[in-house]
């Protein structure tokens, strides 16, 4: 007869201990250890590794064809995945509640089934009728898309054996459980064991598995960190749930690049792809000159984007001035302000500084430094940058403007959207004759850039 044994497991990193600890020794988080029941027996009921008939083979003898990767039917999703889904792979899709994870996978299932494939959508958080309500709103109709409302993994595995789908969608991994583990659904043990079973299904049966994962209030994927290591691809679904646009950002991809970003617009009938994100982000900008407003040419993966940055500088009413950044790193803003004070002579010690990236985007590349600096400088001096001018460049501590990558793509994007001038680092070599409809102004230092943009 099996005897019960308990242990304490950290729900953040999976650390195990025989007694309760207030702080996890591994990840340093407080109050994350939860007591879970583990079944053991005197006969050591360990799971045996199933032996198969596969044999080692030379890498030169392995052949693959084009059918190993297939399209999701959504171009922006394919872009992030590196060209489509790979057979036998596991994809983890994570995002905030209400961001549209279930919506995009339901639309993906519809598009895949139109290509003649069979899909099984396992809804562990909603009933089949609730999924049908969403499907009607999204106009999802298919004769090969199966909906299964179930949380028990043994029942799910049985349906996989019966239906033999080519793509399996689990919504979500935190809600399913296996009876082999006594702990509750969503615990570290359950998530780890269910993911192990999904790995076995994907690799041995050549089924593509897409799993939805919850995120914590810090924005990290809930559950043990080993979950991200086990899957083949990790994708974050980002965006403000109160705004219409959404971003798909790849954080890990064993079959492609992690530099791609997909852009969507959330509408009443589901997610719509945006083929020209720059135009969308610049739709609401004013055509009149406004102090503190500049357009930068940034990169999201290999795709250039033109984004508006706004700065507001005003006299403070506090003992120490406020520094607020939305969309750029706070420490990066402090560094840019220090360069403005030391190298340009702009005194901001008694003024509040607010910087905002329009559209709620998060920009982490240093190529936005020059745009932020010019936005703050022009607002402080109440001068305007021409709305037909784009800015790009990294800012050094001595006030120099440093070279950036993919400069030609950024210039082409600005030219395509009708910009007449772009300020770039002088150390970037560009053939001006290749760009006939836009004036390229190379600058060496920050002071030169300020002079160039206000004239």
Task: Please give a structural write-up.
- The chain is α/β, with parallel strands linked by helices and 455 residues long.
- It folds into three domains: 38 residues; 209 residues, Rossmann fold (3-Layer(aba) Sandwich); 175 residues, Ribosomal Protein S5, domain 2 (2-Layer Sandwich), CATH 3.30.230.
- Helix content is 26%, strand content 27%.
- The longest helix is centred in the middle third of the chain and has 18 residues.
- It is globular and about 70 Å long.
CATH 4th-level superfamily of the largest domain: P-loop containing nucleotide triphosphate hydrolases
Characterize the largest beta sheet: strand count, sense, and whether it forms a barrel.
Answer: 9 strands, mixed
CATH architecture of the largest domain: 3-Layer(aba) Sandwich
State mean pLDDT (0 to 100 scale): 87
Q: State the end-to-end distance.
A: 85 Å
Q: Helix segment count?
A: 11
* Helix content bin: 25-40%
Strand line-up across the major sheet: 8-7-9-10-6-11-12-13-14
According to CATH, the fold-level topology of the largest domain is Rossmann fold
Reading off the top of the CATH hierarchy, the class of the largest domain is best stated as Alpha Beta
- Which class do the helix and strand fractions yield? alpha/beta
Unreliable spans are 40-51
The fraction of residues in strands falls at: 25-35%
């Amino acid at each position: 007869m099996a005897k019960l044994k308990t242990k304490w497991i950290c729900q953040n990193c999976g650390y195990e201990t025989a007694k309760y600890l207030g702080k996890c020794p591994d990840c340093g988080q407080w109050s994350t250890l939860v007591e879970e029941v583990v079944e053991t027996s005197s006969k050591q009921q360990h799971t045996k590794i199933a032996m198969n008939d596969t044999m080692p083979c030379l890498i030169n003898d392995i052949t693959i064809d084009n059918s190993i990767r297939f399209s999701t039917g959504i171009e922006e999703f394919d872009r992030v995945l590196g060209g489509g889904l790979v057979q036998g792979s596991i994809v983890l899709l994570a995002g905030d509640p209400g961001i549209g994870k279930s919506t995009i996978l339901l639309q993906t299932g519809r598009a895949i089934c139109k290509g003649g494939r069979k899909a099984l959508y396992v809804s562990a958080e909603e009933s089949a009728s609730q999924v049908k309500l969403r499907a009607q709103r999204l106009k999802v109709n298919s004769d090969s898309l199966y909906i299964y409302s179930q949380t028990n993994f043994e029942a799910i595995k049985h349906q996989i054996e019966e239906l033999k789908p080519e793509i399996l969608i689990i919504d979500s991994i935190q809600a399913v459980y296996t009876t082999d583990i006594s702990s509750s659904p969503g615990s570290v043990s359950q998530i780890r064991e269910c993911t192990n079973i999904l790995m076995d299904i994907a690799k041995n049966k050549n089924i593509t598995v897409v799993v939805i994962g919850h995120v914590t209030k810090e924005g990290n994927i809930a559950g043990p960190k080993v979950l991200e290591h086990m899957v083949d691809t990790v994708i974050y679904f980002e965006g403000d749930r109160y705004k219409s646009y959404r971003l798909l950002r790849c954080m890990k991809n064993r079959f492609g690049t992690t530099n791609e970003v997909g852009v969507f617009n959330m509408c009443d009938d589901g997610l719509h792809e945006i083929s020209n994100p720059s135009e969308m982000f610049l739709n609401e900008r004013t055509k009149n000159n406004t102090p503190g407003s500049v357009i930068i040419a940034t990169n999201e993966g290999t795709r250039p984007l033109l984004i508006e940055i706004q700065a507001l500088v005003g006299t403070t009413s506090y003992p120490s001035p406020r520094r607020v950044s939305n969309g750029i790193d706070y420490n990066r803003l402090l560094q840019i302000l220090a360069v403005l004070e030391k190298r340009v002579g702009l005194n901001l010690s008694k003024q509040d500084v607010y910087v905002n990236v329009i559209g709620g985007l998060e920009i982490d590349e240093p190529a936005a430094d020059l745009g932020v600096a010019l936005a703050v400088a022009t607002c402080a001096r109440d001068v305007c940058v021409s709305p037909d001018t784009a800015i790009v460049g990294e800012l050094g501590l001595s006030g120099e403007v440093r070279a950036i990558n993919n400069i030609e793509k950024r210039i082409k994007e600005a030219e395509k959207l009708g910009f007449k001038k772009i300020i770039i680092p002088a150390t970037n070599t560009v053939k001006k004759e290749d760009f006939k409809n836009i004036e390229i102004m190379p600058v060496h230092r920050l002071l030169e850039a300020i002079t160039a943009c206000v004239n």
